[in-house]
Amino acid sequence: MLYRLKNDFRLSIITLLGVSAVFGVTPFAILRFIQGNSVAFVVDLLILAGVAVSVNHAWQTGDTRRAGLLMACVASYGAVLVGVLVGDPGLFWLYPCLVTTFFLTHPRMALAINVSAVLLMMLVSDAFRSHEQMWSFAVAAAVVTASAHVFAYRNRSQRRRLEHLATIDPLTGVKNRRSMDYELDMAVATAERTGKPQTLVLLDIDHFKKINDQYGHVLGDDILVDLVTLIDSHTRKYDQLFRFGGEEFVLLLPDVGGEDLDTVMTELQRLLRRRLKCPDGAVTISYGVATLQPGESMESWLTRADDALYQAKEGGRDRIVYADGPPIAAMPASA
């Protein structure tokens, strides 16, 4: 839980704003109930319900884009309704919403939500005591929106650059181990929710140290890049490859298991054996394969794949070992 909050900026924002909304809105909902303002009380409850749905959706599915958009709409248009119902005191609720929308959704979408919310508030004349107050509110809202838009745009650009540096392996261009931990955690959550198989493949280049020692690290780096290119061009768009460390890589195969998994692995082994080369000839790979078991943790899943890879190495290399069944030796090179 803490790992996801630390590594998913938008999820952390959605969670923080959700908690803030609960503590901020609940006392006013109780007050309006005591005062007998049942309509405002119902609106407050609807706002709290929308916030709760947004936070739950973000945590359950990992889809922070839709969850953020929903929370932005609930907060902004909910604030408009509160302003219409209670007048002056409700107007102030829209200001924090005008800022937070830019942290919850894309800047262009946030801008559209803010402009429409302010226009809706202005169209309801009962929300203001005078035209002067209405236009003062509109100018203040425009300044807040413009400032938040500039800040959010710059923050978004800088965050993307930092995330790229923090999660991408600079040599091969694939995601690194830091990113892998998050994606595997999400794969476990997806499997629990959908029941569909998730398979992990650890790949290790055989005798890679010997290649480096004999031909130098430049050639070794070229082989790593070639390996990534070959796997990337012969896997699906939603399969994910990570550099685990050194010459080890992790391939995540969603919705693959059983006989399909055997077919995928056999074709992958055949491809790499045929296309991955060094001056001495073919470069071979050892594979450890594990399909996620019901209720299994990410750590256990990864350990079983690593144990299978160790068996492949100890068994002579250039072979596939499945953690969930009898080891399957590599096919002859002529196959």
Automatic annotation (TrEMBL):
The chain crosses the membrane at residues 12-31, 37-55, 67-87, 93-123, 135-153. Keywords: Membrane, Transmembrane, Transmembrane helix. It is an enzyme of class 2 (transferase). It catalyses: 2 GTP = 3',3'-c-di-GMP + 2 diphosphate. PROSITE patterns: GGDEF. GO terms for cellular component: plasma membrane. Residues 196-325 form the GGDEF domain. The keyword Nucleotidyltransferase does not apply. Its cofactor is Mg(2+). The keyword Transmembrane applies. Its EC number is 2.7.7.65. Pfam families: GGDEF. GO terms for biological process: cell adhesion involved in single-species biofilm formation; negative regulation of bacterial-type flagellum-dependent cell motility. GO terms for molecular function: diguanylate cyclase activity. InterPro entries: Diguanylate_Cyclase, GGDEF_dom, Nucleotide_cyclase, Rev_trsase/Diguanyl_cyclase. NCBIfam families: GGDEF. This is diguanylate cyclase.
